[in-house]
Structures are given as C-alpha cells and as structure tokens.
Amino acid sequence: MSEDALFPLELVKPETHDAGPRLVAPGAVHIPGWLTVEQQRWIVARFGEWTQGPVPLRAATLPGGHQMSVRTVCLGWHWQPYRYTREATDVNGRPVLDFPDWMVRLGRKAVEAAYVSGGEIDESLSALATDYTPDAALVNFYDDGAAMGMHQDKDERSNAPVVSLSIGETCLFRFGNTQTRTKPYKDVELRSGDLFVFGGPSRFAYHGIPKVFPDTAPDGCGLSRGRINITMRVTGLS
Ligand SMILES: O=C(O)CCC(=O)C(=O)O
Ligand SMILES: [Fe+2]
User: Fold this and answer.
1) Cβ–ligand 1 contact at 148 (below 6 Å)
2) Rounded to the nearest 5 degrees, what angle is found at the Cα of 173, between the Cα atoms of 204 and 13?
3) Does this entry carry the keyword Repeat (predicted)?
C-alpha cells in the first residue's frame, strides 16, 4: 500500500472514534489509538528497514559511562548525548537516513490533532500546528526490561512541540514538570497506536519511561514483543 493511501489528508479511523484526546498538562495532549493498526504495521515494517540502514540500533552511552537500556536509530539528525549530528559519530560515523516526507506530514497531523481539532483548543498552541516541520526522529526500541530515566528533551534549538508515537507493548509514561525530575508528575499508560504531543508550557517538562509491560502488544500491530517509540522533534539546526 502506498504512503498516500495510508496517511491520507483526512485520517478516517472508525475503530477509534470514541478514544478522545486527554489533556495531561497544559500543552501536553494524549490521544489514545491515534494510529490505525494498519498504520502501526506499516511503520513497524519501516522500522525494520531503518535498523538495516547505514546506522544500526544502538544503546547510547551517557557521559558518566552508563549505557542506556533503550536502543535507538535516528532519522534526519543523529542524537547522541547531548547533541545532534548528521553523522553517527558515536556509532559508525555514517550519515543517518533522511527524515521521510510522510513523517513530516504525520507530525503535522499529530500537532493538529492535539492542538487544533480536538485536544487543547488554545490559540497560541494552535499556531504551532500551522507549519510544524520536524527534522529529526529518535526511534527508540524497548525490550528486555528497557526503561528510560526522567529527562528533558532540550538538545534542540527550537521550542516546537515534540510528537511521540507508540507501537507494540504498553508502557508507563511518567510526565512531570519543568522544574524538577521528581513530583509532581502524572503517570500515563501509552499503548500501541497512541499519540502524545508535548509543547508550549510543557515542552521542557521532565518525562521518562519507568516500565514497559511485557506481552501486551496487540495482535496486528506488527510487533510481537517490545515497544517502538518515535519522537519527532524540530532541531532548529541547519
Ligand atoms: O519512549 C518514550 O515514549 C519516550 C522517549 C523519550 O522521551 C525520548 O526519546 O526522549
Ligand atoms: Fe524524551
């Protein structure tokens, strides 16, 4: 099936029409079941291609020497702690794959869904959807007890929203505040197909993944075990 057919101008998703957007914090919107199962499966197939691309999945090593349990492959720009580069200089030095056009369109739809058509209706946030153009994606893979500690996404030189998509096993997503990596925070379950957008006043909120629940990937999502998370960002780099 073609990209245009899978991600048409108007997303028609009768099976998820009742799963409404939820405001988690100002500027932070969770839309359960946003991707159809067919879209999830198609993205999982692309994930298989990305991981066979120039740069393999890798677990980043933090400056203190600690290796992350999550493995990541990047599109557009390569993220390494704590900067973006065009070449994966901490892996094999090769340039990362281009950021796909379909993902730009999907990212824009996501921000519209969160801030314009159904989520948080707020003029300053709605404006963020107009020409949202993500240029980097971190595609994270969680398996075997992988988790991600509380952190801010702050290596971008832009305060444009972050768009997060989840496929596969359900996880616990801890969404905190912009001041500390501790309480107050809200715990949200992100399931296969869910969209989470955080921007505006929540753009620099601490967040993390304390836990992924094994054996919870739904039939048909394309992944029998593990969890894929795509976070799209605007780097502000050129
Ligand atoms: O896996 C997730 O849902 C979050 C990933 C994340 O926070 C990141 O890649 O910066
Ligand atoms: Fe993050």
Assistant:
1) yes
2) 100
3) no
pLDDT at 169 over 80: yes
Distance 152 CA to ligand 2 centre (A): 6
Residue 229 C-alpha to ligand 1 middle, in angstroms?
7
Average pLDDT over residues 101-129: 88
Question: How would residue 16 be classed by pLDDT, with cut points 50, 70 and 90?
Answer: very low
Radius of gyration of the chain (CA): 17
Tokens of 211: 């836990």
What is the 186 CA–ligand 2 centroid distance (Å)?
15
Q: Whose CA is nearest to atom 10 of ligand 1?
A: 153
Residue 180 CA, ligand 2 centroid: distance in Å: 15
196 CB less than 6 Å from ligand 1? no
Residue with tokens 């990937």: 217
pLDDT in the model for residue 3: 73
155: annotated binding-site residue?
no
- Separation CA 160–CA 198 (nearest Å): 9
On the question of pLDDT at 7 being above 90, the answer is: no
b/e map 66-101, b = 16+ CB within 10 Å: eebebbbbbbbbbbbeeebbeebebbeeeebbebee
11 band by pLDDT with thresholds 50, 70 and 90: very low
> How much is the pTM?
0.93
- Distance of alpha carbon 129 from alpha carbon 107, whole angstroms: 9
17 marked ligand binding residue: no
Domains of the chain: 31-233 (2.60.120.590)
CA distances (Å), 60 to each of 63, 153, 207, in order? 10, 15, 18
